[in-house]
Every structure is written in C-alpha cells, then in structure tokens.
Specification:
- The chain is mostly beta strands.
- It contains two helices and 17 strands.
- A twelve-stranded antiparallel barrel has the order 1-2-3-5-6-7-8-11-12-15-16-17. A four-stranded antiparallel β-sheet has the order 9-10-13-14, with no helix packed on it.
- The radius of gyration is 24 Å and the shape is globular.
Length: about 300
C-alpha cells in the first residue's frame, strides 16, 4: 500500500503537458500568404544654385504569393523534453514579374523543455529552442531574375519562453523569443555590376499573446497578436557596405478548431498584416497525422 501510494504521489508531482516519454507524433500544416507592395525609386539631383530637381520616378509593383506545406515530427525524449523536426515544402509565385520558385525550405530542429511539473490552475512554463538550417534555395546563390528562393540562405539559432494558464473555459497564452542569424560569408554573388561578399542578417525579437475559448466539446476559437522586430542587416560588396533599416511587423490571427474525430482536431486560421513589413493576408490549416496508419499491422497490434 505504501509503494502504491508513493507511485500515485510521484505521478502527480511529475505531470507535464508535453508528450510522454517514447511517444511520437506527426502533423501537417499548410499556410498561404499574399504580400502586395509598391516600391518607389526617385532620382533627385541638385543644380549649381542648390535647388533640387526630380529627374526620374520609377514605381515597381510587387505581388507575391507563398504556399508553405510543413510536416512536423515530434518525439518525447523525456516526459518534460520533446524533440522535433520540421520539413517545409515551399512554393512562391510573383504575378507581376512572372517568377516562381518551389522546393524544400529550411529544415529546423526544435526542442521544448519544461523544468517544472504542470500544476492544474497554475501557469505552465515551457522553454523552446530551435536550429534552422539553410537547406532551401538561397537568395544569395539563385539568379533573382529567373527564380524565387525557397530559403533564407543562412543558419540561425533561436530560444524563448512560452507560458499558458487555464481559466476554464479560457486558456491564456503568450511567448517571447530571440533569434540570431549566423553571418553568411564567401557569397560571391553578382549584383548590379558589383559582387556581394558577405551578409550579416542580425538579431530579431518576436512575441505573441492571445487566448483560446472553448465554445463546446467539439469547437474552440482563439485570437492572438504576433509581432517581431528585426535589426538592420549589413551587406558587404566589393565596393562598400550597404545596410537595411530595422523593421517591425505585426499580425492579428484568428483560428477555429473543430474536432472531426475523437482524436483529431483541425485548426483553420486567418491573419491580417498590421504593418508595411507584414503579409497582407494569411490563411492556414493544420491537423495531426495518425501515426498508426503509417505503421505495419504487426507493430500496431504489438503497441496495443
């Protein structure tokens, strides 16, 4: 009796909201984004009297459609530590310049860790970390006038903290993270009559906050705001250094979760960009993939 009581107390103390040790899961999500912009190039010259004269104005429209198919694989290494792998398949199309690009994106390795056990009614804390590769088509190697890149072109490391608290029937959540992009050297890409040698993307910060409300056992709704700040990037050319200005983006998201089966919930979301650096429209859908359907029958039977 004492041993059984001790096991009950240990199970209660070591309760985590992550995957159980040894469990695996697979998920799929698809997102579509549309970004439209007008780039204005103005050439201004001064005469001998010091007056300014506009010599030329060039307005270049941009209309970019992006579809990303993400496959995620998670493995419960421990009850409080989950490891994951994300493989994106990206398709891009610019309807103004009639350019396109498709292929695998930047694969990322993720980790989620809970140092403290989950206690009902209290705030849950989860530390996150990610390493993103440069497996996608790099914008510093592809020919910009022929195809669109599917990756960022550099490695990056990120870490953050996410918190959540359940106030039945509402769950409040928020997160914050920082990302560091490793500079890309030895680029050697011809650009506008010069040669691009090195790229330093800089540091970026992101945060999000929102809530999820359970309308019924089968339907839930969530709203959130997602913002990010990107520091200026530096580009080293053979004839000098150019840098971009820092940027801020903000997106308002709404999603609806519908239970389509006893073990499957499908989430459908829509987002709207709130700054010039954000996509105008975001559409997304995500769902889990039944791992048992991918296993041989003998393994399924043994697991049961």
């Amino acid at each position: 009796q004492e041993k059984s009581l001790e096991e009950v107390f240990e199970a209660t103390e070591n309760s985590y909201s992550l995957m159980k040790q040894g469990q695996t899961s697979m998920g799929y999500s698809m997102s579509y984004s549309y970004t439209a912009d007008q780039r204005i190039d103005i050439d201004i010259k001064t005469d001998d009297a010091g007056k300014y004269h506009v010599r030329s104005i060039n307005v270049t429209p941009s209309s970019l459609h992006t579809i990303s198919n993400n496959f995620t694989f998670d493995y419960g290494y421990k009850n409080n530590l989950t490891l994951g792998l994300t493989i994106p398949l990206v398709m891009k199309y610019d309807s103004i310049d009639t350019l396109s690009g498709s292929g695998i994106g930047d694969i990322s390795i993720n980790a989620r860790w809970q140092p403290y056990a989950y206690v009902p009614g209290e705030m849950s804390r989860t530390f996150t970390g990610s390493f993103k590769t440069k497996t996608g088509d790099s914008p510093f190697q592809s020919i910009s006038s022929k195809r669109l890149p599917t990756g960022s072109g550099y490695y990056s490391l990120s870490g953050g903290l996410s918190v959540s608290k359940v106030i039945d029937p509402v769950m409040l959540y928020g997160s914050g993270s920082a990302s560091y992009a490793i500079p890309e050297t030895n680029v050697n890409q011809p650009r506008s009559g010069t040669l691009l040698k090195e790229v330093k993307p800089g540091v970026s910060l992101s945060f999000s906050a929102g809530f999820a409300y359970s309308l019924s056992y089968d339907v839930s709704m969530s709203m959130s705001f997602q913002g990010s700040y990107s520091n200026k990037s530096e580009y080293t050319f053979t004839n000098g250094i150019a840098s971009t200005s820092a940027g801020m983006s903000g997106i308002f998201n709404m999603s609806l979760g519908v239970r389509v089966s006893p073990k499957t919930i499908t989430n459908i979301g829509v987002g709207f960009g709130m700054t010039d650096d954000s996509p105008d429209i975001l559409l997304s859908i995500s769902m889990p993939i039944d791992m048992n359907g991918l296993k041989p029958k003998s393994l399924v039977g043994s697991s049961l």
